[in-house]
Amino acid sequence: MPIVQIKTEINSDIKTCFDLARNIDLHQESLKHSNEKAIAGKVTGLIKQGEWVSWEAKHVGFVQHLTSKIVEFNEPNYFVGEMVFGAFKWFRHEYHFYESANKTLIVGKFHFESPYGILGKLANFLFLRRYMEKLLKTRIYFLKAVAESS
């Protein structure tokens, strides 16, 4: 099962980073290039424990629908979203936040399993893992820019 991990240091306090990472509006803004839109559930504002959001976006040439739910939440230290519906066989996206000297280290971990057995594993190897890493970096660098400009 592939894991994408991204560590990013941000010159901002932990509470600001935590709130920006769970902000639905900022998520949509950061992934505008894929026309990512929240279409059901929590569609604006700050998502929290037990809430869910359904997304529509264009990825790898196809319109995708995905629903994830916040299954773990400890403000401002971490939150976890898991897929309840979508193209993956399974995924779990963790955000961990560590503060030191008014800087925050965000560690994002994206665990996923593709459907279709050996074909899914081949897709992971050929492009999907790299695609997801690039997508997550785009999102976190956008979050960093917003956090450091406020």
From TrEMBL:
<dbReference type="InterPro" id="IPR023393">
    <property type="entry name" value="START-like_dom_sf"/>
</dbReference>
<protein>
    <submittedName>
        <fullName>SRPBCC family protein</fullName>
    </submittedName>
</protein>
